[in-house]
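Figure 3 (text version): structure tokens given as input.
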């Protein structure tokens, strides 16, 4: 199904060697980070892969307690297990396999992220991705918002050799439900066999994250589990020659081309804005999680 579109060329393959725990619920490999690749990844900032990891049954709350974010969005995609989130803007919800939460911290939220209570009690396999998407400078101080996007709301398009779940962007006439601040594609892919061709915007940052299985893009070596292939921005499609029962995430976004200055959970454009973020958090201006819904807390 080769077309006359010009394929994006492989730039490099990233593999993470590190594994660290975020709180006590998320054994994470950071697959990419803006600290060393900011301008290459723009508008994406960071991608954490949690699990796959087998958790025994527990009544404990596993995860990360109250912490802030400002200046970007966190997008959490669950593959197995359950994640519960609650934030100081009133957003929150529980997501399971196939679901996505798109949390816009923007001007600032305080939130917590835990395993779902039912999942924790039964135990089992846990796997998720968390992507940080940068916001344009003009939107960094916008009001926070929360989009809980359930599996059933995500269009799944079957083509020969693949299923494309359209979380954000448009594929084959189907529009993903996520509302974004800049043009972003997030497609959850199941790839069975090549050749495959995915039309993509010319000039946009493009990354293919392989979680399971193996994928070979045109003219490059095989991309394996836990690896991220970064492609040149030039070109109008991603062409895949072979795929073996792969689960992958395709990311494509228009570069913001603005300065990136980050410190922990804050990503802004200047050092002054970071100092302001720290000050605003410490003085309580990003809110608190002090009003607990009935029955939502362990005693
Ligand atoms: Mn967080």
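Below: residues designed for each position.
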């Amino acid at each position: 199904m080769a077309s006359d579109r010009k394929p994006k060329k492989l730039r490099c393959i990233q593999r993470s060697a590190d594994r660290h725990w975020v709180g006590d619920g998320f054994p994470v490999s950071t697959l990419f980070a803006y600290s060393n690749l900011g301008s290459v990844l723009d508008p994406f900032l960071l991608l954490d892969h949690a699990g796959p990891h087998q958790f025994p049954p527990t009544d404990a709350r596993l995860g990360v307690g109250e912490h802030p974010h400002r200046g970007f969005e966190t997008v959490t995609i669950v593959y197995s297990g359950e994640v519960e989130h609650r934030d100081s803007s009133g957003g929150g919800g529980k997501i399971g396999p196939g679901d996505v939460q798109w949390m816009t911290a923007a001007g600032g939220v305080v939130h917590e992220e835990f395993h779902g209570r039912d999942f924790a009690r039964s135990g089992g396999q846990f796997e998720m991705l968390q992507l940080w998407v940068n916001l344009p400078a003009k939107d960094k101080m916008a009001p926070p918002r929360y989009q809980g996007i359930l599996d059933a709301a995500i269009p799944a398009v079957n083509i020969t050799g693949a299923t494309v779940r359209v979380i954000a962007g448009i594929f084959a006439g189907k529009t993903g439900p996520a509302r974004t601040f800049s043009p972003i594609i997030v497609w959850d892919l199941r790839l069975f066999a090549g050749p495959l061709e995915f039309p993509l915007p010319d000039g946009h940052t493009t990354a293919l994250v392989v979680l399971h299985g193996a994928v070979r893009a045109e003219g490059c070596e095989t991309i394996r589990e836990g690896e991220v292939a970064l492609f040149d921005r030039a070109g109008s499609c991603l062409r895949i020659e072979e795929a073996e029962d792969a689960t992958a995430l395709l990311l494509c976004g228009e570069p913001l081309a603005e300065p990136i200055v980050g410190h922990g959970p804050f990503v802004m454009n200047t050092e002054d804005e970071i100092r302001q973020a720290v000050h605003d958090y410490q003085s309580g201006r990003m809110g608190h999680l002090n009003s607990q819904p009935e029955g939502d807390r362990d005693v």
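The two ends are 59 Å apart (CA to CA).
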